[in-house]
Structures are given as C-alpha cells and as structure tokens.
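Suppose a classmate hands you a notebook page containing two proteins, each written out with its sequence and a corresponding row of structure tokens. How would you begin to make sense of it? This section walks through that situation. The first entry is reproduced here exactly as it would appear on such a page.
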Amino acid sequence: MRNGTVVGNGSVPLIHWDTSDARPVADVVAFLLSDAARAVTGQVLHVDGGFSAVGA
C-alpha cells in the first residue's frame, strides 16, 4: 500500500492505514453534518485507524 503504515503484530485495529487517503476524515465530516449526529456534542473523534485506542 502506497504511503500506508503497517504496525507491528496487528495490535492496531486497522493494520494498513493509508495516510494519503482522505476518505476516512471525509466520512466523519459527512456523519457530523448529518441528522444522525444531532446528539453528538463536545466530543473529540480520532480518525487515526485505531492508533489512539491502543496507545501506538
């Protein structure tokens, strides 16, 4: 994968994180702009392939 990051032994939920792909961020923005996110307030959403979840 071009510009992707492979992390260790699979301890990160998304083993291949393509840092050049803006779609994950765009998907979160689309969600936040939708009615489905009307109750979301004061949150920090990490769009990082799971790195922050495992402390990588």
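The notebook's second entry, a different protein, reads as follows.
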Amino acid sequence: MAAELGEVGAAAERVRDLSIGEIGVEGGEALELAFVEAANNVIQHGGITAGEWLDIALRSDGAGVTLELQDQGHPIPAHVLDEASEPGDAFAESSRGLWLIQTLMDKVTYTSTSGINKLVLFRRR
C-alpha cells in the first residue's frame, strides 16, 4: 500500500475482512486494530516519504493468521521497544501503540536488517 495515512483505513478493512473467516470476528477486529496502529506508526514516525510503500503480507495456516509489514524507514529505537511492554499513562494520547499491538496479538516480532524493517503479527485461531 502507499505509505499515506489516507490509505490505512481501506487496507485495515481488507485485513479484517480476509482474516475473519480464519480467526473469527474478534480476532479479525483485533488484527485490524493492530494493523492500524502499526501502519500509522510507520507512516508518522518511520521517516517514510510520499510515494514510498508499506509492504503487507497476510497468511493463514492451521494455527492462525500472520500479518507481516515491511518498510524501509527508520528502525524502531531499542528503548521504544523496551518501553512497549508497559502500558504507561492510561490517559496519554501517544506512546501506547506498540503496547496495544502486543496486547492484541498472540505473538509479535520485529527485526531491522539491511535497511528493511519487518513487523510480524500473529493471532491464533
């Protein structure tokens, strides 16, 4: 998808619609919300410029659904990843996206290698 905030909603609906048959309505909606948080973070904080792309892959197997997001923006700083395990201030309007993603998903992995950032979200059946 084009790395633009205006594209996130339609892509999120597609993620939800494609995953509901595999992981149910609750799982599909959780994956949709996690995708919105992740995509918005990449676009707003990842140093992506207009015209660049956020690559998305959605796979299903007997265990559940995996959503992979790849970009070539700035990697997530290590301290941000470390702080993501704590919810922080419940009334804060920012800095909760990664924590929310981890809370909604059964497994979250992040790597940044050779300029490619990869966030993999997994939700069990």
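A careful reader of the second entry would note: Residues 5-124 form a domain with the Heat Shock Protein 90 fold (CATH 3.30.565.10).
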